[in-house]
Amino acid sequence: MTRFALLLAAGVSAIAISSAAHAADLIIDEPAAGVVDVSGSWDGPYVGVFGGYAASHYSEAGGYENDLNGWLLGAAVGANFTVSDGIVAGVVADIAWSNQSLTDGGTVDIDWVGSLRGRLGFDGGAFMPYLTGGLAVAGVTIENSPLSDSNIHVGWTVGAGVEFAATENLSVDLLYRYSDYGSQTYDIGGPFDAAVTTHQITVGLNWSF
Fold first, then answer.
1. β-pairing verdict for 170-187 and 44-60
2. φ, ψ at 66 (rounded to 5°)
3. Count of beta carbons in the 10 Å neighbourhood of residue 140
4. What gap in Å lies between CA 56 and CA 50, rounded to an integer?
5. Of 74, 84, 107, 200, which has the fewest Cβ atoms less than 10 A away?
6. Range 33-71 burial, b when 16+ CB lie within 10 A, else e
7. Tell me, what's the pLDDT at 41?
8. Residue 8's pLDDT is what?
9. Distance CA 182, CA 152 (A)
10. Could you tell me if 5 and 200 are in contact, meaning their C-beta atoms sit under 8 angstroms apart?
11. Residue 202 and residue 176: Cα distance in Å, rounded?
12. How confident is the model at residue 40 (pLDDT cuts 50, 70, 90)?
């Protein structure tokens, strides 16, 4: 499943690179007669919803490790602002419900994930390829009946995406991210350290205002 996520990530990166190259051509060339220049339309605050798929890896300090995967459904809020010709910076916060679960003797559940990230994009008019990175958090529950323990993991995330304007105020956001949520100590009949990393692909709708 990690291989599948990496293949999807490569696709998103290729789209972003191709979009950036095409956007550069659009800026360099004179616009054709009758074409409206929509550069700069990414500025301002926005809210959004998104869904996607996550492939995660769980590991314990004692050597045990396994994979888990599942769906994501969440919401985001952010803002963009133009910092120079063709360059758009921004900040976004998101949180998502996750149904990722692993059962192997005990149970590991990734209940939710979230992030606070910066974005740096290229204004191509009707589309914006971008890079993103920042803080990542995840809520994890480990159970070995009848005992269970929950923790919030805090780590980092990086990714790449491309956003397409569908209307003046609505855009479609395609994003790949890798997140390392770090390690936390759990106590289920004895303490142990566990870590989680995730590849995720999401598609979202953002409304600007």
1. unpaired
2. -165, 165
3. 25
4. 18
5. 84
6. eeeeeebebbeeebebebebbbbbbbebeeeeeeebbbe
7. 83
8. 44
9. 10
10. yes
11. 7
12. low
pLDDT tens across 65-120, in order? 999 999 999 999 999 999 998 999 999 999 999 999 999 999 999 999 999 999 99
In the chain, DSSP assigns E strands to 44-60, 65-84, 87-104, 106-122, 127-144, 147-165, 170-187, 191-208
What global pTM score does this model have? 0.82
CA distance 25 to 28: 5
Hey, what are 62's tokens?
């004692």
**Alpha-carbon span 120 to 92, nearest angstrom:** 11
